[in-house]
Design a protein that fits this description.
By secondary structure, the chain is mainly alpha-helical. It has two domains: about 80 residues, no CATH class; about 120 residues, no CATH class. It contains eleven helices and no strands. Helix 2 packs antiparallel against helix 3, helix 5 packs across helix 8 and helix 10 packs antiparallel against helix 11. The relative contact order is 0.11.
């Protein structure tokens, strides 16, 4: 099993990144010799090579640091990183982590639904002045260590699921997550795209007569640092 590079205090819950790396590394079963492998067949990665694919795919740590932590030669890791199978495995790790991220966010929806039952009973003036409910993203506190390619993969998965008008409160969550968590390493153009999509949804809600929801969404958007509507 790979030893975690990003250690946390024993009293602090591990981040999603730490959990995923540890889980995937522990569950991986490396090959033992060539028993049962036919000539010409591809051999599965060794444990160290698999762990290297995890860290290279999911973190922004320099290759030299990863090589030192995993006790492999830097030159070997550089060669692995340009191999087709290694790059494909990296992309697979990024897709899987993006799906884990969506799953973690969906767990928070219950809180937003409970809040929805109270906030939308208020009049528009109260909605526009009501406190914004805090949402903790502590499991993503190390997002500044994510591989930029991973950040874009997460964004792509989130964007496919947001701003469709089916669940406005999930869209609130996506907006907050993109701004407060991913913005550290997100392409600024993608944040602009997110804001435009949010504004489009607000207009759709207004057109559909869902004025209270639209106003509350507008307030969320306006209160985000650096947002101009």
């Amino acid at each position: 099993m790979v030893k975690l590079i990003m250690k946390s205090n024993k009293d602090t819950k591990e981040t999603l990144l730490q959990q995923v790396i540890e889980k995937y590394s522990t569950n991986y079963k490396p090959p033992i010799g060539r028993s049962g492998i036919k000539r010409g067949d591809e051999i599965a990665f060794s444990q160290k090579k698999y762990d290297a694919s995890l860290y290279t795919a999911l973190t922004n740590k320099p290759l030299k640091e990863i090589a030192n932590e995993l006790e492999i030669k830097y030159g070997v890791l550089k060669l692995w990183k340009i191999e087709k199978r290694f790059k494909e495995l990296m992309q697979q790790h990024q897709r899987h982590f993006a799906l884990h991220t969506v799953g973690e966010l969906q767990k928070k929806i219950g809180f937003l639904h409970d809040y929805e039952d109270t906030i939308l009973e208020k009049n528009i003036e109260e909605i526009m002045s009501a406190p914004i409910p805090p949402i903790a993203f502590d499991e993503f506190r190390d997002a500044n260590t994510y591989n930029p390619a991973l950040v874009e993969e997460i964004y792509t998965h989130l964007f496919k699921r947001s701003f469709g008008g089916e669940n406005e409160f999930f869209n609130f969550l996506i907006l907050k997550f993109v701004k407060n968590v991913l913005s550290v390493s997100l392409n600024p153009k993608l944040w602009i795209q997110t804001k435009k999509s949010a504004i489009f949804l607000i207009k759709h809600l207004l057109k559909d007569g869902q004025i209270k929801t639209a106003m509350y969404y507008l307030r969320q958007l306006e209160e985000m640092e650096g947002t101009e509507v």
